[in-house]
Specification:
The complex is a heterodimer of chains A (401) and B (63). Chain A has 9 helices and 27 strands. By secondary structure, chain A is of the alpha/beta class. Chain A has 3 domains: 4-110 and 239-307, FAD/NAD(P)-binding domain (3-Layer(bba) Sandwich); 113-235, FAD/NAD(P)-binding domain (3-Layer(bba) Sandwich); 328-398, Enolase-like, domain 1, CATH 3.30.390. Chain A is globular. With 63 residues, chain B is α+β, with helices and mostly antiparallel strands. Chain B has helices at residues 15-19, 44-53; strands spanning 2-5, 24-26, 32-34, 59-62. The chains are: A alpha/beta (401), B alpha+beta (63). Chains A and B meet through helix 7, strand 23 and helix 8 of A and helix 1 and helix 2 of B.
Amino acid sequence: MRDSVTIVGASLAGLRAAETLRRDGFGGRISLIGEEPHQPYDRPPLSKQVLAGDWEPERALLTPAEKLEPLGIDLRLGVRATGLDVAARQLEVDGVAEPFDGLLIATGARCRILPGTEGLAGVHTLRTLDDCLAIRAALDAGADRMVVIGAGFIGAEVASVAVGRGASVTLVEALPAPFARLLGREMGAVVADVHVANGVDLRCGVGVSSVVGGPGAMTVAMADGSDVDADLVVVGIGVVPNTGWLEGSGLTLDDGVVCDATCLAGPNVVAAGDVARWTDPRTGESMRVEHWDNAVEQGRHAVRRLLATDEEAEVYAPVPWFWSDQYDRKIQLAGRPHPDDEVRVVDGSTDEHRFAAFYGRRGQLTAVLGMNRPRQVMQGRGLLEQGAGWDDALAVAAGWG
Amino acid sequence: MRIVVDYDLCESNAICMAIAPDVFEVRDDDFLYVLNEAPGEDRRGQMEEAVQRCPKQAIAIEG
């Protein structure tokens, strides 16, 4: 039995893991270390309600103080893990070594920076509460021309909120269709259509060659020779897992902390959330999942793994799921589609932006996409958990009409 | 045990429905309906799962 658990990363995966330990009856010391000074908060509202100005930041706290306090978690905020020695069981915090008993790594990821824009005022990324409040402050101050670089889900949500606040938005995507890498061309085009229908100037298949100027007077030059003037620029071109502090730790790093199928990264060390890479037992694919739901589930799984024996350890085999709110549409995806999967709309209509679609490959259901169809996506997720075949899944969906 | 949903927070993600479809139902009007506000004590673990997994923390258990 372990005496104490140290969790590095005080965001969703780390906090939910700590709470799970207490709920499971763990009576030892729990230390939760976070780099940001803020009480642990939830990130989805940062590109939705908080950015829109509908919520104040306090409302995005993950667990209210009165519920957190009785759990007796040693919350160490504003400090940074700077090194790890797995063999010696030593963690380094702000340069000072300390022993650990069991360790959960949940250090998440940081935004990829568009080359040439490092430190350029007026160019924003969105990951943290401070990032969110900086963009919100610019909008509050009257910025009403926004260029969003990268039509991923963060970029799409920021565009959606900015349009809702009356800004004119240009959304630039280097790929021929937005979301095509994740959703495939056909469904990517449906999401693109939602943005165009809401007045976004969507430019696909064109790269950005430079960003110059400063807040209120910026110019984004495109590779095709055109340029767009803007008051502010938001870059959403993906994230990089935070593993720099683990160089030389003894753990295997490869675009994330490499774990076994049970989330164990090394002796007495587990990892969870955006930073963790493991092999999906369902498909044999190496995965790293950046979704909210995975952070909760993997945080819980990993910390229980830390307390289990090797014989008791269970594999981690989730069906990935996420949601994104854009304008008045709720987009949800369960499973992992490949861009060349067969796609079949099984309920509703893509023209009305209200539908559910199945993705399939080699006779298997691989994913379910919904736009304002949460019930169908959740039922589809159940089918994915059961490993449903394509024909069986279609038969179930035929009963949805 | 009583299930209470804060409908100001609920965004109808339907995670709860996937966990306990006989208690939670998201209908085609995009709203969540609680079908059974007082599930039996043997369901407590499942209800706590629904509370934990709700992305909006809109579900609470009273009693």
